[in-house]
Structure prediction request, 112 residues.
Amino acid sequence: MVTGLKAGDLLQIDRTASVQFLTPFRIRLIKVLTDRITYDGWVWLEAYQLDDRDEAVARRELFVRKEGLRLLVEPPPQRRPAAPRRRANQAAHRRRQPDTSRKPSSTPGQPT
Prediction:
């Protein structure tokens, strides 16, 4: 049995939660609807039904047995690899250096 349901929990809903759910599916809990009268051991949930990629496909209100809910453990979010840090001298080295190989152009009226 799941205790302490909170927003964001990922839950498995199947026949053990209620006989109406023949095909198992996953939900992301929005909130427990505590203002509704229920039978002992039952609860109203507001949740997003998820697809295979954990994308929300429907917003639902579900009447389920607490004992039949199964909390799914999520893998930790994958971190993007950090970009390599440049040292100050590397950044300065990549700055464009002035081209000193050319002679300055002469302006009219001035000797070269």
